[in-house]
Design brief:
The structure is a single chain. The chain has 96 residues and is mainly beta. It contains 2 helices and 6 strands, in the order E-E-H-H-E-E-E-E. The chain has helices spanning 31-34, 40-48, and strands at residues 3-6, 24-27, 52-55, 62-67, 73-82, 85-93. The chain has a 6-stranded mixed sheet, covered by helices on one side. Strand 4 and strand 5 form a beta hairpin. The longest helix has 9 residues, at 40-48. The N and C termini lie far apart (31 Å).
Length: 96
């Protein structure tokens, strides 16, 4: 399953300068998200409004952490495809 989420349609409360609110999330491998009990919308919320942004020590990919709309703390590892698109590699829930 492959689909594109356009982050330009996010509600105003998710639009903060710290996030990637004007990017689109490409989910070609949605299984990497859903196998951890998360939805594309959970990942989108965190990528667009992260608590923290860093880089993975092992892969060198960008990593963000943040809260899903239902309050779970998650980590998302992604690839930057271009200036407006990211590809989530994996995402999973963290222990608070």
């Amino acid at each position: 399953m492959s689909f594109l989420l356009d982050t330009n349609t996010l509600s105003a409360h998710l639009r903060r300068q710290s996030g990637l609110a004007h990017r689109a999330l490409q989910f070609a491998g949605v299984d990497h998200v859903t196998e951890h009990g998360l939805t594309p919308e959970d990942v989108e919320a965190v990528v667009c409004d992260p608590l923290e942004k860093t880089t993975s020590r092992t892969s060198g990919r960008p990593v963000v952490t943040g809260y899903t709309p239902d309050g779970r703390l998650i980590l998302v590892v992604y690839e930057e495809i271009d200036d407006v698109m990211v590809y989530p590699v994996t995402a999973y829930e963290l222990d608070d």
